[in-house]
Design a protein that fits this description.
single chain, alpha+beta, 19 strands, about 20% helix, about 35% strand
Length: about 350
């Protein structure tokens, strides 16, 4: 049924490229209009190439509580959170969003981490654990609504969102189609995440488009996520960095009990041991991820992502804490730049 969705997208002008071995709409040949919709209307992004995991049975909350950085024990059905899966030494694996339902937890994970996380999570299910783990990615489709008119669009379809807390969600019926609508879209921008069965994905996509949503491709979304500061695996989330360095303090509970990587994170927080931090960088020219960031000829960091926008060149980079933060003048090769804040990241405990 996802093929039916892709056929509709192809008819609408989608240009497909592989992402994590899945063909994804890289562009709809409308990037300017789509990015304008992000700021003034509603953009519609297909997240169906991401992974959707379903954690079930009685111990599901305790299990996820023990496997990632956020506090799952306090969550009730209809609530959710962002959380980070880390190694035993607190190196980042993935930034995920979890939605707690009455009988399961749905976990949205990055496309290039789905299989790794399935194997990782399965490794920590022990015989006495009442936990089930299922990959439901192929059974589901996930869409993002991004932009200030997202509420108005949903109201136009007869959908009224009552809760406004991030990752809170409701199961609703649109016509005869069951959908789950969650507050937030994975960026620090207004909007929603919509989960629907794969068989109903094409029809829902068409409804959202007819209501005024402008499709946005993966290339434009990548530009957005860099401008927003959302870290992703293989760029900002790697074995080289921990979630405190990655600016993901909002995903971490410092009060909850033991979990994988907790000891390292607690020690870094207690002893102010965060040696580098992720920032945005306005650049005056082109640069490549992996390039060194310098101040007065001394290396102080490394570029992790780069994009070109209508307002200039922009990058994400890890910068040594002692070197400074917002306002720091840096160079990437011969290209000058200035360190700036980005809305998705936090650099201290909220």
């Amino acid at each position: 049924m996802i093929k039916e969705l892709q056929d509709i997208q192809l008819t609408a002008g989608a240009i497909f490229e592989p992402v994590a071995d899945v063909m994804v709409a890289a562009s709809f040949a409308n990037d300017t209009a789509a990015l304008q919709a992000v700021n003034q209307g509603v953009a519609l992004f297909d997240l169906s190439h991401w992974g959707l995991l379903c954690i079930g049975d009685e111990d599901r909350l305790r299990y996820l509580h023990n496997q990632s950085t956020n506090d799952f024990q306090k969550l009730q059905p209809g609530q959710g959170c962002d959380t980070v899966f880390v190694t035993s030494t607190a190196r980042t694996i993935d930034l995920a969003t979890a939605y707690v339902t009455a009988d399961a937890v749905l976990v949205l994970v990055s496309p290039n981490r789905r299989q790794q996380l399935i194997e990782w999570l399965d490794r920590y299910i022990f015989p006495m654990d009442r936990v089930t783990l299922k990959d439901i990615s192929s059974e589901s489709a996930v869409f993002s609504l991004i932009g200030p008119e997202s509420d108005a669009l949903l109201k136009q379809l007869g959908i009224e969102i009552t809760a406004q807390a991030y990752a809170s969600h409701q199961q609703l019926t649109l016509g005869e189609v069951k959908i789950r609508v969650a507050v937030g879209n994975g960026l620090a921008l207004p909007g929603y995440t919509v989960i629907v069965s794969a068989q109903d994905a094409a029809g829902l996509w068409e409804q959202l488009k007819k209501a005024g949503a402008i499709p946005i491709g993966n290339c434009a979304w990548e530009q957005l996520r860099i401008e927003q500061g959302r870290p992703v695996p293989e760029h900002e989330l790697t074995d080289d960095y921990n979630p405190l360095e990655a600016g993901l303090w909002q995903t971490i509970s410092l009060e909850k009990g033991c979990y994988i990587g907790q000891e390292t994170i607690a020690r870094l927080n207690t002893y102010k041991g965060v040696k580098q931090q992720l920032w945005g960088v306005h650049l005056q020219g082109t640069a490549s991820p992996g390039s060194s960031v310098t101040v007065d000829g001394e290396k102080v960091g490394q570029l992790t992502s780069f994009t070109e926008t209508d307002s200039g060149r922009f990058a994400l980079a890890y910068i040594r804490t002692k070197a400074g933060g917002v306002g720091l003048q840096v160079k990437v090769g011969d290209v000058e730049g200035e360190v700036v804040d980005v809305p998705f990241l936090t650099h201290e405990y909220p």
